[in-house]
């Protein structure tokens, strides 16, 4: 996503020209044709940079846009665009970071905008690091423990406490599996007990003996 710029100027031709140049260079651009519209956009959107004309519906219109940009929580870079000569102390007192004098060559304008954005972002990063360092210093003694936990999460390793809990759960699960497995084993063992069968030879002998007995009975009955 490209860096976002708000252009504020009451000259439509200037707005359209600058918008086209900046969008071709990779920026996202919103426009406002008055200080009032510009201040409204500053309240409803976030921008990396605001470029405003000096004189619009009033001589102080540009200064009002600069003040609104400075009051924004996201702290955009601010450039004052004007065709009128302004002393350095004047535009700096207004709160602008850069003075852009029109007309200006496209290449020079883009270089100035890029340079201002880079320096402003570096300044914000530096201020952010300082604030973060102060916040870290105010943290209680337990903060290093949280940091260690965060490192373990970032490295993909489970914290020690989580490892112990997971291990305990596995042990309990194994015991439950063993307990539930014992009755089924007993049933299988009972089911698989071999059935004692008489050998085939013994059956044949028994048949012969029975046949002889029946023959003897028949002979004795005839006599």
Describe this structure in words.
This protein has 223 residues and is an alpha/beta fold. It has two domains: 134 residues, 3-Layer(aba) Sandwich (Rossmann fold), CATH 3.40.50.2300; 49 residues. 63% of the residues lie in helices and 11% in strands. It contains eight helices and five strands, in the order βαβαβαβαβαααα. β3, α3 and β4 form a beta-alpha-beta unit. The termini are far apart.
Please provide a brief summary of the model.
The protein is of the alpha/beta class and 223 residues long.
Order of helices and strands: EHEHEHEHEHHHH
The second-level CATH architecture of the largest domain is 3-Layer(aba) Sandwich
Strand tally, please?
A: 5
Beta-strand residue percentage: 5-15%
User: How many helices in DSSP terms?
Assistant: 8
Helix/strand class:
alpha/beta
Mean pLDDT: 74
Spans of at least 5 consecutive residues with low confidence: 129-165, 182-191
Order of the strands making up the biggest sheet: 2-1-3-4-5
> Compute the gyration radius: what is it?
46 Å
**Multimerization status:** single chain
């Amino acid at each position: 996503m490209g860096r976002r710029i708000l252009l504020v100027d009451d000259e439509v031709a200037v707005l359209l020209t600058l918008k086209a140049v900046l969008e071709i260079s990779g920026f996202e651009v919103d426009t406002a044709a008055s200080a009032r519209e510009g201040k409204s956009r500053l309240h409803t959107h976030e921008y990396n940079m605001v470029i405003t004309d000096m004189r619009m519906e009033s001589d102080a219109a540009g200064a009002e846009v600069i003040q609104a940009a400075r009051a924004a929580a996201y702290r955009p870079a601010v450039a004052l665009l004007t065709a009128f000569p302004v002393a350095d102390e004047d535009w700096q007192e207004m709160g602008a970071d850069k003075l852009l004098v029109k007309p200006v060559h496209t290449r020079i304008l883009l270089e100035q905008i890029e340079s201002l954005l880079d320096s402003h972002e570096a300044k914000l990063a530096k201020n952010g690091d300082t604030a973060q360092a102060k916040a870290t210093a105010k943290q209680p003694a337990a903060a290093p423990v949280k940091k260690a936990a965060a490192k373990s999460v970032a490295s993909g390793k489970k914290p020690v406490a989580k490892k112990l809990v997971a291990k305990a759960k596995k042990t309990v699960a194994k015991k439950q599996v063993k307990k539930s497995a014992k009755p089924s084993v007993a049933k299988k063992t009972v089911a698989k007990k071999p059935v004692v069968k008489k050998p085939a030879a013994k059956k044949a002998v028994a048949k012969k003996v029975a046949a002889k007995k029946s023959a003897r009975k028949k002979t004795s009955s005839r006599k």
